[in-house]
Amino acid sequence: MQKIEGGEKLTVPEKVLFDFNKFMLKPKAKEALKVVSAYIAQNSPKKIVVSGYTDNVGSDEYNLALSFKRAQSVADFLIYCGKIDATKIKIKGLGKANPIVPNDTKAN
What we know:
Elements: E1 2-4, E2 7-9, H1 14-17, H2 27-43, E3 48-52, H3 60-80, E4 89-93
Parallel strand pairs: 3-4
Antiparallel strand pairs: 1-2
């Protein structure tokens, strides 16, 4: 949990959430998102932004679409399994921009 201007930022590592080139949640992701759902339920934020990312392999266009699908998968879990109000959630696909860890993957 990190305090930011206008709220708080909670980061779940991408490697916990998704396999390479996929947008289906991994089993460990569901466990992590249950904790996130409980936190949201206890703190009742007015707005939740779910941002999806990718690595730097592939085209910008492809990565942007994949990151959006990843964000949607997280939002769907929060809504349907975590019982979070869908009207509070906004999703963003950010592709390989603004990585939470360095994107220094090199193609072989």
